[in-house]
Structure formats: C-alpha cells, structure tokens
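ENTRY TYPE: paired fold submission
RECORD: A
CONTENT: sequence, then structure tokens
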Amino acid sequence: MSELVPLIDRDMYTRFEAARSEIEVAGTGHVSRVFVPVGVAPTSAPSTFPRVLFVGKATRDWGDEPFASFDGSKGGAEDVIRYWLPTGRRSAFWQFARQILCQTLQQCEIPFSENGLPSFCGWSNLAKIGDLVGNPPPKSLEIQKALCIEALRSEIAFFKPTAVVAVTGDYAQHKIMEPVFGDDDSWHFDTLEEDRVAYQFHDGLKTLVIWTNHPQGMRPPGTRASVQEFATELIVRAMRGLPLPPGAIEPRP
C-alpha cells in the first residue's frame, strides 16, 4: 500500500497554530485542532495513474488530544482516508470520492482494489482550522484565509494532481476559492444556472479543477450520480490529454 505523506510542512503547521491561538483569543466559534492534509507521495517522473486531490470545507470534531500535534493530525487524516475511502461508509464526501476514483480507474483500465484506493488520492480542506460543531465562522476564516490560500497553492504544487475536486459550494468562495482558482469568469459551467459543476484547466497550477456542491446537499435525486459521472469524464480526459468539453457557459476572456 502506498505511503501517505503530509501536504504541508512543519513550518506551515506552526504558522497555523499561531493563527489558531489568535482565533481562540478572538472567541469565535469552537476551535478545532489544525488539520494536516495528506496524499499519496508524488514521484519525480510523470504519473501514469490518476492523482486526485479531494478538497472539502473544513474538519469537524478534530478537537481530540491525539490531533494536537503535526504528527497526530497527519496520522488522523491518514486513518480517515484508509478507513472511510475504501467503503464510503455513511459519509457522502467519501462515497462521492470513492465513486469518482473507481469509475476513473475502470475507464482507464487500471487494476485496483478497494483497499488500494488511497494510492490514487489526497485529502485537503479549504480551511485548515475547523470548528467542533460546524464550519468555521466568518471571523475564523478572516484570520486564517491568507495562510489557507498559501497552503492550498503549495499543496497542489507538491502533490501534482491530475485533478483537484473541490466539493465546497459557495463556502469561503470569496475568501479562499477565488484567490486560489479565479472568479466566475475563469470557469466553464455545465448548466446555465451555474449550480452544478464548474471546471477549468488552471494554467498556473497546471491541473484540472472541478468545483461542485458538497454531495450531501446535491438535489434533486440523481444529481450526485450525474456529477460523479461528469467529473469522471473530465478526469479521464485529463489523463488522456484531451481538451475539456464545452460548457453551457464558457470562461469569459
């Protein structure tokens, strides 16, 4: 089984710890421990396998003492991927990730086992300092946003993904998503309502980026399956060096 490595370094973690202390002093929300994103280790040669970085909003319940260090948080994230991804369990996020990976690997005719799925992905969040009872409130985001932008760009550069799949909806859109990936003018949208899937090849980050709502909130019934299929199509195209399909709305020059 492939090794999972941290996608931020200890120096970045220390800077997030300082931001976490500032959030605590500000008395905003119920502050979680700092989240350390992880992913399969990159290789020096171009990968012939898909590498998908799944990005959520933030962690909840990341407040236990074992997560209170760089190694502890990294280990917790690794345990989550290895436990939740192979089966999906009852998590909409991991069910969504699992289906996209399985469909991509099947269409690319790459042999895999369910327990081996972590070998093709990474896990991150927009906000690295979560909240124990919900998503980080606006003041928490304001304090950590500059670090989150820097970290996510650095993670992508290090991980070298085939695709980034951000299932974040409009959460932290103006504070983190747009500074990293660009505003609405940068994206293809697959519907005229701009409410299902946005996608682009980001020249600066050198990766396909797919942006959707969180799968738990995808409506009406059947939307999640359709989004999974379309995301798979986009990733397979990226694997094969094919251009992106036109959208219902195209990027604006």
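RECORD: B
CONTENT: sequence, then structure tokens
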Amino acid sequence: MWTQRAASLSFLTTNKINNMKKLVLLSIALIATAGLYAQNFSLSGAKPEIKTALGNEKELVNLYTINLPYSAEDIKNALHERLKTEGVKGKKVKNNFYAFKEVQYTHLWDNLCDIYVSVTGNKNSGTINLIISQGYNNYINPYQDSITTEKAFKWLIGVDRVVYDYVHEQALATHLEEEKDIEKTLSKLESEQNKLEKQLDKVENKQRKLEASKTVVDENDLNVDSKQIAKEQKEALKLQKEYNDIQNDLTAVKLKINQTKQDLNQKKRAISEFKQNKK
C-alpha cells in the first residue's frame, strides 16, 4: 500500500515537473515572440506582422505583412529592382501575387523554396504580403517557425529601406532634371542676351555712321538739299526705334536671366538640403 502511494506520489511529482517545464518553455517562447515583435520596427516606423489572409490560390493562409507609407506603385517598382538585382525572377499569378518558384533565396529560406509576394494599396500607402512555401503550396507556418519569421520580418524591414532609397533617388533625379532644365533655360537666355547685344552694337554703329555723314545745315546756304535731310532724319528715327526695341528686349532678357539665376541657386540649395536630409 505504501509502495502504491509512493508510486502515485512519484508519478504526480514527475507530471508536475514536466508541466512546469512545458510552462517555462511556453513562457520563454512567448517572451521571445514578444521581443521579436517589439524590436522589429522599420525605417518609417512600420512593424511587420503575421496575419491570416487570402493567398496566391485565394485560400486562407498565415502570411507575413507590412504596411509602408509609400505609394503601392513605388513599392512595386522598388521591389522589382531589388529582386532583379538579386537575380530572382517571377511571374504574376492569382490574387495580385507574383510567384518566384524554386529559388535559392537565403534572405528568407536556406533551401530551394517558392516565394509569393503581393503589393496592394494606393498613392499614399501600400501593403506587402509575403508567403514562403517549400513547394507544392506547402506553406511555412509563421507561428511554428520562429527562425523563418525572424528572417521574413528582417526582409520586410529591409524592403522599407529599399523603397525609401528608391523614392529618394526618384525625387533626387527629378530635382536634378529640374536643375538641368533651369541651366538650359539660363544658357538660352544668355545666348539671347549676347545676340541682342550684338544687334544693339550694329545699330549703334549705323547711328554713328549716319551722324558722321549727315548733311550739315547752314542757314545761309540756299542750296540745301531738303530731301536729303528729310531722308537722313527718317533713317535716324528708324534706327532709334530699332535701338529702343532691341534695348527693351535686352532689358526683359536680363530680368529673366536674374530670375533664372535665383531659381537655379534655390534649386541647388534645395538639392543640397534634400541630400543632407536623407535618413
């Protein structure tokens, strides 16, 4: 009888210890998972998550996801460039997913795997959904594979940086193109200024020649050629009008040049500040 009681007590003690071990391990797992979620914030402050949603076959699956504060189009383009650079090629499949079949992509999985990525959203934000499969729709369960989940979260956080850099580069390219356009405008205006100044010099030379050769009027000279004098006066008025018109055009061009130089300086400062403000 005492032997049976001892055996029962031993069994209960062992069972209690095993349960305590399981509880401890579960607590450690929960703490680790909580730490994983708490530490994984992206450049923009977005946090990768696990959710249940429709997958590439329009069936409910557990997948990795992140919502980023960039347009869906920018996210798609940035992802396309990254994956292309890394030698990963895919094709569009169901439910807005792109499938990358039988790829060796150690950022997410050490062996050959299938990766499914979708990007949805609008001009203000986009959501990336990520599914990893060992083949034949044998999806990795994010809740049961903490190592892969950590890799997936890290990858999604990295995508945030990739998209940020892409958007920054696109915006910088626009700034540089605008700077180039302003420089072209300035160059054309300066050429126009040179052209007008040469035209003005020609008119001034004509005026000097006309002044030097004009008929000198002598009140005592009864043989004054009035027609010649009238002709010279008409020519002088014509040259003066031409001079004034060119001078007006030149003044307008100089004003535009000054404004364009200011625009160019502002654009250069904006580009410098834009580069410095990159995260």
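NOTES ON RECORD B: Confidence is low (pLDDT under 50) at residues 1-14, 21-38. The longest helix spans residues 146-213.
STATUS: closed
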